[in-house]
Amino acid sequence: xxxxxxxxxxxxxxxxxxxxxxxxxxxxxxxxxxxxxxxxxxxxxxxxxxxxxxxxxxxxxxxxxxxxxxxxxxxxxxxxxxxxxxxxxxxxxxxxxxxxxxxxxxxxxxxxxxxxxxxxxxxxxxxxxxxxxxxxxxxxxxxxxxxxxxxxxxxxxxxxxxxxxxxxxxxxxxxxxxxxxxxxxxxxxxxxxxxxxxxxxxxxxxxxxxxxxxxxxxxxxxxxxxxxxxxxxxxxxxxxxxxxxxxxxxxxxxxxxxxxxxxxxxxxxxxxxxxxxxxxxxxxxxxxxxxxxxxxxxxxxxxxxxxxxxxxxxxxxxxxxxxxxxxxxxxxxxxxxxxxxxxxxxxxxxxxxxxxxxxxxxxxxxxxxxxxxxxxxxxxxxxxxxxxxxxxxxxxxxxxxxxxxxxxxxxxxxxxxxxxxxxxxxxxxxxxxxxxxxxxxxxxxxxxxxxxxxxxxxxxxxxxxxxxxxxxxxxxxx
Length: 478
Prior knowledge:
Layout: H1 24-54, H2 56-63, H3 65-68, H4 79-90, E1 98-100, E2 109-113, E3 122-128, E4 135-142, H5 149-160, H6 168-195, H7 212-240, H8 244-255, H9 292-303, E5 312-315, E6 324-328, E7 339-343, E8 348-353, H10 360-373, H11 378-405, H12 426-442, H13 444-477
Helix pairs in contact: 1-5, 1-6, 1-11, 4-9, 6-7, 7-10, 7-11, 12-13
């Protein structure tokens, strides 16, 4: 990171020559210090909101138990009857935009309708008891996750602070810098571990006999080494959702042929049938319209092909000339997100996508997102994420406490030395510049803030040099 050679130092601190032990460790120290100091608040907010988001699926199940739990474990009535009950409840002739059948005994069916009063990607879900067609809830739900209001509120807090698209810059900034700060801290920890012989155990768990700054530093080092891999994972997976860096990730995956396969829903040139046509059991519902009976018919076709999990979403055609879509939405292990497109008039399968055929990077992206969201391994996944988020928040607080503890009586804490690249070989300087440029291009918000740090430090260094020259001139005059 070329900017770390000249990140802002305290006004009172004059430039000092680099340490004799080399240039790379001081560079890491300067990077870790200033990135943590200046970006720490964003990481802290992301960690605290992330800890809350990690356990939100469990909170949701408790808070909305009435809407999510059926009155019995009976097999239930047809989807058509459940959809008709939801339509009767609304009484306005609305057609569902999607239906999620009860995934298991004792669960509820969600019949989802468009509602212009709701935000983008949000639908109005009517919760129908599949055993009795009783309406047990009427709530907005968000996106593919199907998050209910509380979890969606927490998710939006974590993602954008409820500030819309502009608010997403905060989370991208935090995600982008988190991995860099964590890796720089890991480099410093490894250096201390190699140099230290008697105190290596203290780097893995804090020494309770230490006090003051050493105690804070011990806790910071020990907590850091236990959460560093998780922090890098959260950074990497968080970037895939971001606005600017996320687009670069998608472009890179597409360039190497590792993008997520898309289901083709256009019926132009399709509908010829072939080996999947009808499956010999759906001809009783020859209609492409979103009438209740067709939901049962297309689900039966999909179940005979590649849909074999209970977590399913059925979508009627979004427009004329489009197919019905039946897609698995099972995000816990083992991942099941197979999808099939069906011509509702002929019940012929026009396209299918199977998770088993995803490219490797597409699978890793799916698993990474589900792990980051806490859905891959259920409650255990959520508890690990909660502990990890608390650990990251603790590191930020400990870092600020260390900075405050080391401050002089007046002014700010002494920053790591400026000019550490002055003693680096030419290849070291070239490598730092190349890495900084590459990271800045791939992670734009890192590049922008890094450039801002450089400008700020140049100004601070110039001011410090002028102040020192003025003092020398005054002393000479005296």
